[in-house]
Specification:
The complex is a heterotrimer of chains A (237), B (272) and C (244). Chain A has 237 residues and is mainly α. In chain A, 78% of the residues lie in helices and 0% in strands. Chain A contains 10 helices and no strands. Chain B contains 11 helices and 12 strands.
């Protein structure tokens, strides 16, 4: 067995050495996942809120389906996106396979159901509270969607963070559609997988520690920002 | 028109997501984990890229998957090590022509304690039956890769069918070489690996080389340009330049110059 | 020939209203016309159907049977747009005080400067000057209900429906709400307010609708209903109310 204490101290020293290649990998990870979360939010939030207020046959089925999609196996998503983007696939002509855009696409598929499902939960409670008042003001169900999204904004930050956590930590999908190509599509998680397969456990562990650090930093940053936004709200608007 | 619109929209996305469509030309090489994990490609590619300005993007997967990806048209050059499959790939019209590129060798690694009492030697065909007789743990790639195909061939040549014992002493990981070596290291098992991956592998634990230098463990790599007649989008010119460079004097010299722990691990043999 | 008063304020009529749930009749109002000049107070014990009647008049609940009409035509979306309702527990948006008012003003299509000016006027009307940037949900109970009334008034309603707006408030806060309601009434807004507080009815009502067990037992001028009720049910409610 390895002495994991010494492995870990090696790992920590790798972080503080600040290897420029490592940081470009970190930046690509952040860019891909943040962009994926942004697109997922643009799609998932209105869909989630609409599902919270709309009443139509099959709504329960749709909600169950969406909640199930939250747990989509990344490898399956990677495979589906690969088949879609492969040269032999329907979107092959776009030449997107093995690009960061392909990774963003795969992460959007993974993250959108999470954001949509969490948005539905949050807005459904709010919609119940607002329902009579909004109807009294003549706001129709569907036009209440932006009202609910705005008023649930603080809770929705948590939905975004959950989506981001899923995106940044995921490896199964991006390694298939990105190809883990050095300097092009190599991100944190695929690097960790690669270094583990090389038996470089110390480096893999160091990268894992950075990944966790990033997750903590992003969470802290967002919650500070939303807290500040709330305090700003007390002073202005 | 429609396609151009989508492209334009996605390029805009790409701008935010990073320089995806770089100005300089690039090719995609479908290759095996052994060439990447050993560090060979990282060593030789900068020379080619500096000389030609062509960026080489390597997708490293098992030989089986690399060939399937190339059949789907998701690569310009195929660099793998399973000669019969490569020849079939060309015969089926997916590739232009197969060239011998280089070879390395497989080795049998196992725990120092050597429960099957193989001893150090150079005869794979006597080592494998000894492992079966002792029912000592053996970890197989089990992933249809070049190494896996070679291993299956050696079991057959030794007259042993280990698949009956699958799940007992014969364990199939279904993973890459490195992942498989991690498993072997973790459970003190025997495994067949290519020498290059072994030398660069950082988690050997108690494993060491037990069988090597058996001529039957010779491991030939081939390189093939994906056929632009079946896949018109293949970057044939750049891909052909890469193939030509690899089998030409510069590429062959670069391969020969790569060492791990002072040992040469890939032996160029394109001209032979 | 219509009289002068109904020219000035709108009239509301309910015909054959019935609401049933699980085989029980919750509301049964054969005929009710609200067309007097001053505030109408709907008075009665808990569960007598006051709030249901109010929601029917506002179109929030569609009755199982019967119809609601305004000025002789069936209640339609135009009518509803000229009604506003204030609920027992104010439902304020999770925004600032000013943004709660801005929300309804923006929906009416006012420009930015007009909205700003109107918000200042409204806040002054409700005694909420200086609170405009505060989150609405941090207001006290009385302030929150005043904001809810201001938001309703921002709609420039012809009819203001209020569902026990002061039931959770102390006397001081109640008094401020009552003043706002009376001011709106003198400006010509038809007031229909639900209460179980007999004192409040005495202070505000021009006419009183007395309800009991889902039906209207008496409707008439406040002076008559509160002082010399004709029905036994009204008498008992008023007597009980005087004791407590």
């Amino acid at each position: 067995m390895h002495d994991f204490a010494s492995e870990f101290s090696k790992a920590l020293s790798l972080i503080f050495e600040r290897d420029s290649e490592l940081w470009s990998i970190v930046l690509l990870s952040l860019r891909v996942s943040m962009f994926a979360v942004l697109i997922s939010a643009i799609i998932g939030m209105p869909v989630g809120a609409a599902l919270a207020v709309a009443r139509f046959p099959g709504r329960r089925v749709l909600i169950v389906l969406m909640n199930t999609l939250m747990g989509l196996p990344p490898v399956v998503v990677g495979l589906l996106v690969y088949l879609l983007l492969s040269r032999s696939g329907p979107l092959g002509v776009l030449e997107l396979l093995y690009t960061p855009t392909a990774m963003i696409l795969a992460q959007v598929v993974l993250v959108t159901p999470i954001i949509a499902a969490l948005t539905r939960q949050v807005t459904e409670m709010l919609a119940e509270e607002y329902s009579e008042q909004l109807r009294s003001l003549g706001v129709s169900r569907l036009s209440s969607v932006p009202v609910l999204l705005w008023d649930a904004r603080l809770a929705l930050v948590t939905a975004l963070l959950a989506g981001f956590g899923r995106a940044i930590a995921e490896v199964g999908a991006v390694i298939i559609v990105g190809g883990n190509i050095n300097h092009v599509t190599r991100v944190m998680t695929t690097t960790i997988a690669l270094e583990t397969s090389k038996g470089n456990l110390a480096l893999a562990l160091a990268l894992g520690a950075i990944l966790i650090g990033i997750a903590v930093a992003v969470n802290a940053m967002v919650s500070t920002l939303s807290l500040r936004a709330e305090q700003e709200g007390l002073r202005h608007a | 028109m429609f396609r151009d619109c989508i492209r334009a929209a996605l390029v805009t996305l790409g701008l935010v997501a990073g320089p995806v469509w770089a100005e300089e030309p690039f090719i995609v090489v479908q290759s095996t984990t052994s060439t990447q994990n050993s560090g060979l490609l990282d060593f030789i590619l900068p020379g080619f890229e500096a000389e030609t300005g062509i960026e080489v993007r390597v997708v490293a997967v098992g030989t089986g998957q690399a060939i399937k990806n190339a059949v789907n048209g998701d690569g310009d050059v195929l660099l793998v090590h399973s000669k019969p499959d490569e020849e079939k790939f060309v015969a089926d019209g997916w590739g232009v022509e197969r060239f011998d590129l280089m070879y390395n060798d497989f080795i049998l690694v196992g725990p120092k304690s050597d429960p099957a009492a193989i001893g150090e030697g150079s005869d794979i065909l006597s080592a494998l039956p000894a492992i079966k007789a002792a029912e000592a743990p053996f970890v197989s790639r089990g992933d249809d890769s070049g190494t896996h195909k070679a291993e299956v061939g050696h079991w057959a040549a030794a007259g042993v069918d280990p698949t009956d014992a699958s799940g007992t002493w014969y364990r199939e990981t279904g993973s890459g070489m490195g992942a498989t070596l991690n498993v072997a290291s973790g459970m003190d098992a025997y495994a067949l690996t290519d020498r290059a991956t072994w030398l660069s592998f950082g988690n050997k634990g108690s494993l060491e080389i037990l069988v090597e230098e058996d001529p039957r463990l010779f491991n030939q790599y081939g390189v093939i340009l994906v056929n632009p007649e079946t896949h018109p989008h293949v970057r044939a010119n750049a891909g052909q330049r890469f193939v030509d460079w690899l089998i030409g004097p510069d590429g062959q010299a670069a391969i020969a110059a790569y060492t791990l722990e002072g040992q040469q691990v890939f032996f160029p043999n394109a001209g032979d | 020939m219509r009289d002068l008063v109904s020219e000035m304020t709108t009239s509301l009529q309910a015909r054959e209203l019935q609401i049933q749930s699980n085989g029980k009749t919750l509301l049964d109002v054969p005929e009710l016309t609200l067309d007097g000049p001053g505030p109408t107070l709907i008075l009665g014990p808990n569960g007598s159907g006051k709030s249901l009647l109010l929601r029917c008049l506002h179109g929030l609940i569609t009755p199982n049977r019967g119809q609601v009409a305004q000025d002789g035509t069936l209640l339609n979306s135009d009518h509803k747009a000229r009604q506003a309702m204030v609920f027992q527990h104010p439902v304020l948006l999770r925004r600032s005080v000013a943004a709660n008012l801005d929300f309804v003003l923006k929906r009416q299509g006012f420009g930015w400067t007009a909205r700003k000016r109107r918000i200042v006027e409204l806040l002054a009307e409700g005694g909420l000057e200086g609170k405009s940037r505060q989150p609405a949900r941090s207001l006290s109970g009385g302030e929150a209900q005043r904001l809810a009334i201001l938001r309703a008034l921002a709609l420039k309603p012809e009819t203001l429906l209020l569902d026990e707006p002061t039931s959770a408030l102390d006397p001081g806060a109640t008094q401020m709400i009552e003043r706002m309601v009376l001011r709106a009434s003198t400006r010509g807004v038809r007031i229909v307010m639900v209460t179980h507080d007999i004192g409040q009815a005495r202070r505000l009502a021009a006419d009183v609708v007395m309800m009991q067990a889902g039906t209207v037992v008496e409707h008439g001028p406040a002076k008559q209903v509160l002082v010399a009720p004709k029905s036994e049910a009204s008498r008992r409610y008023l007597a009980g109310g005087l004791i407590t």
